[in-house]
UniProtKB/TrEMBL annotation:
This is BTB domain-containing protein. PROSITE patterns: BTB (PS50097). It comes from the Eukaryota. Residues 12-86 form the BTB domain.
């Protein structure tokens, strides 16, 4: 076992053990932000037992969590640059996953705002937003882009999106290509819908 090089903090009053790494952080953030953790930490210890999470020997073990992902998650609270949150897309996705799992709603809002500023493939963004139950209105132009592009979804893309979303995309593409362009022509490969009509189509289907 080892103490995490960045997040074993002097004065911390909450201990976690993840992948042989001890984390020492502040209970305050977990009780304030997460109803799930608030309930977990409120569970009284059995008579005579030491309260869970108060020392290395009673550290809370978090299964199915990678130490690197947990460190990224903690960075949200201990960011030394205050309001400046600069991170890669993959980091924000990792943060989202833990925030969603434990009900850190404000962290989810922050991660969503930041990831909206970054470039991310449409398929990856749709998959992540669906998985973490993020407002789907943010995906309208992503659905529209997949509807308008010339190439149909690949097998791999369809498997990633899931059957429901894939069928809706195929239906949108079918409808968009059945509507004639301004000159009366139809194209089997490209959608020529005006922006307002495309948005209406996507709203109807999704």
């Amino acid at each position: 076992l080892r103490r995490h090089e960045e997040f074993y903090l002097t004065g911390g009053d909450l201990f976690f053990l993840i992948e042989q790494n001890h984390f020492r952080v502040h209970r305050y953030f977990f009780e304030r932000e997460s109803q799930w953790f608030k309930l977990q930490l409120a569970t009284p210890a059995s008579p005579g037992a030491t309260r869970q999470g108060t020392s290395e020997s009673t550290a809370i073990v978090l299964d199915n969590v990678k130490a690197a992902s947990f460190a990224k998650f903690l960075w949200v609270f201990y960011n030394p640059k205050y309001s400046l949150y600069k991170a890669r897309v993959d980091d924000w996705v990792a943060i989202m996953e833990l925030a969603h799992r434990w009900g850190f709603n404000e962290v989810m809002k922050l991660a969503t705002r930041e990831i909206e500023k970054l470039e991310m493939p449409d398929i990856d963004r749709i998959v992540a937003y669906h998985k973490f139950e993020i407002d789907r209105s943010l995906l309208l132009h992503r659905y529209a882009a997949l509807t308008a592009r010339e190439e149909p979804l690949t097998l791999e893309e369809g498997m990633a999106l899931g059957m429901d979303t894939t069928l809706k995309i195929f239906r949108a593409r079918e409808v968009a290509r059945a509507i004639p362009a301004a000159d009366g022509s139809r194209s089997p490969t490209s959608a020529s819908l005006p922006a307002e009509e495309m948005q209406s189509l996507i709203l109807d289907l999704f």
